[in-house]
């Protein structure tokens, strides 16, 4: 009897253990794989600078030793960073075309001919590719087929990328500025103008979008903050020199550089400059946009240097010297900085001290790049380059 009871207890315990193991296997992992909170996906880079805030920073791991996976040659120069969504790369070119490429192999999926050169990156939103050209026409193109959905004609050329916001369940907006000095909000589905805001000079860059506001600079040397819903001005902060690039928003602060060679931190709540770098002088012109992480702001300069400053104070953390002007905009991925220079090299730097971890000679000025997973997608001259971990 005792023997039978022991057997029964052992069988019962074994059944409980099996049931527990099965239940645990069906329970969601309490430690899920890390995904970026800064972009829609670690695999996506759907906006110029990666996200609506334009911070160009993603969580993730990038290998120190990369190899060239493939290249694609367009019919004209690619002047800005490609964008990426769902394994597809979208690149704009001076030949007037938008190219859709496979991120895995680089083969062309489709092309769309606008008839005029593109200067800026495209935007991917709601399965649509938005891009503006030098004729001042913003196109909305179906991301699957490359067919035109609608177009909007501004009064002068478009040199910056579009950004977006979902205002309500029924209304999504696309924002675009241009050389007609106007920032516009268009209905993302129809292209109908919802509002416009006039400035005093060209708008070269893209607006950063955060919560219910957007921020952008221009050649009238002002940083403007507007309400997303109606375009009403919240603030206008004079910056002292024209702004040829795009600001970014991190928490309650806006970061931007200008042609005069200063990098700024502006408080959104106070509508004033909190710090500037350098404090009492200037570096070379900042033509590209900054990348911002939790504690660093990284930006390239026409004095051939890449600067990293402390986000809280604006004090210099480190500099890295290239052999040419740095007009493109750096990217932060985890503990690394990706940067390009007109010396023709693409660099990976340690974000803590600026030491070089890797470089690749592309033979011509590096004009832009994006990150998808552990890959870098870069543009130089007429080519798109894809780099991945060596051996993969």
Question: Could you explain the architecture of this structure?
Answer:
6% of the residues lie in helices and 43% in strands. It is built from 1 helix and 33 strands. It has 392 residues and is mainly β. The protein has a single domain, classed as YVTN repeat-like/Quinoprotein amine dehydrogenase (Methylamine Dehydrogenase, Chain H, 7 Propeller). The termini are far apart. It has a 5-stranded mixed sheet with strand order 1-27-28-29-30, with no helix packed on it. A 4-stranded antiparallel sheet has the order 2-33-32-31, with no helix packed on it. Strands 3-4-5-6 form a 4-stranded antiparallel sheet, with no helix packed on it.
Secondary structure blueprint with pairings:
Layout lengths: L1 H25 L30 E2 L7 E8 L9 E3 L2 E5 L4 E6 L5 E6 L9 E3 L2 E5 L4 E6 L5 E6 L9 E4 L5 E6 L4 E6 L5 E6 L9 E3 L2 E5 L4 E6 L5 E6 L9 E3 L2 E5 L5 E5 L4 E6 L13 E2 L3 E5 L4 E6 L5 E6 L9 E3 L2 E5 L4 E6 L5 E6 L4 E7 L2 E6 L2 E7 L3
Parallel strand pairs: 1-27
Antiparallel strand pairs: 2-33, 3-4, 4-5, 5-6, 7-8, 8-9, 9-10, 11-12, 12-13, 13-14, 15-16, 16-17, 17-18, 19-20, 20-21, 21-22, 23-24, 24-25, 25-26, 27-28, 28-29, 29-30, 31-32, 32-33
């Amino acid at each position: 009897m005792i023997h039978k009871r022991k057997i029964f207890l052992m069988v019962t315990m074994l059944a409980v253990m099996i049931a527990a193991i099965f239940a645990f296997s069906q329970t969601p992992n309490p430690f899920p794989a890390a995904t970026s909170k800064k972009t829609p996906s670690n695999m996506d880079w759907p906006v110029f600078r990666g996200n609506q805030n334009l911070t160009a920073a993603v969580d993730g791991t990038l290998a120190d030793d990369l190899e060239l996976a493939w290249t694609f040659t367009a019919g004209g120069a690619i002047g800005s960073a490609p964008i990426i969504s769902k394994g597809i790369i979208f690149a704009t070119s001076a030949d007037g075309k938008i190219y859709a490429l496979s991120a895995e192999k680089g083969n062309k999926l489709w092309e769309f001919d606008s008839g005029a050169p593109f200067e800026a990156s495209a935007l991917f939103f709601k399965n649509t590719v938005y891009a503006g050209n030098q004729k001042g026409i913003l196109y909305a193109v179906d991301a699957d087929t490359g067919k035109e959905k609608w177009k909007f004609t501004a009064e002068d050329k478009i040199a910056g990328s579009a950004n977006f916001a979902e205002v309500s369940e029924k209304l999504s907006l696309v924002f675009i500025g241009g050389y007609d000095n106007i920032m516009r909000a268009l209905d993302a589905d129809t292209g109908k103008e919802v509002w416009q805001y006039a400035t005093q000079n060209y708008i070269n860059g893209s607006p950063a979008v955060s919560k219910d506001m957007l921020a952008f600079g221009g050649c009238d040397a002002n940083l403007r903050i507007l309400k997303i819903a109606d375009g009403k001005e919240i603030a206008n902060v004079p910056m002292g020199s024209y702004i040829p690039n795009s600001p970014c928003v991190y928490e309650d602060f806006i970061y931007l550089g200008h042609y005069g060679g200063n990098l700024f931190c502006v408080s959104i709540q106070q509508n004033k400059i909190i710090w500037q770098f350098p404090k009492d002088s200037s570096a070379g012109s900042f033509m590209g946009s900054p990348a911002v992480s939790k504690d660093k702001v990284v930006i390239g300069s026409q004095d051939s240097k890449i600067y990293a400053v402390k986000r809280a104070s604006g004090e210099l953390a480190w500099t890295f010297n290239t052999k040419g002007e740095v007009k493109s905009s750096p990217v932060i991925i985890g503990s690394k900085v990706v940067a390009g220079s007109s010396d023709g090299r693409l660099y990976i730097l340690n974000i803590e001290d600026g030491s070089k971890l890797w470089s690749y000679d592309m033979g011509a000025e590096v004009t832009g790049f994006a990150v998808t997973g552990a890959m870098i997608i870069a543009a130089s001259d007429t080519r798109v380059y894809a780099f991945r971990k060596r051996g993969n």
